[in-house]
Amino acid sequence: MTANERWWSDRLQQQFAMARWGHFGTPVLLFPTAGGDEEEVGRHHLVSACGDLLEAGRVKIYSCDSPAGRAIASGTGTPRYRMWLLNQFHDAVRREVVPAIHTDLGGSQQRIVVAGASIGAFNAIAVLARYPDVFEAAVAMSGTYGIERWLEGELTEDLYFSSPLHFLPDLQGSQLDLLRQRQVILASGQGQWEDIGESWRMAEVLGAKGIPNRVDPWGPEWMHDWPTWWEMLPKYLDELC
Question: What does DSSP assign to residue 142?
Answer without folding.
Answer: S
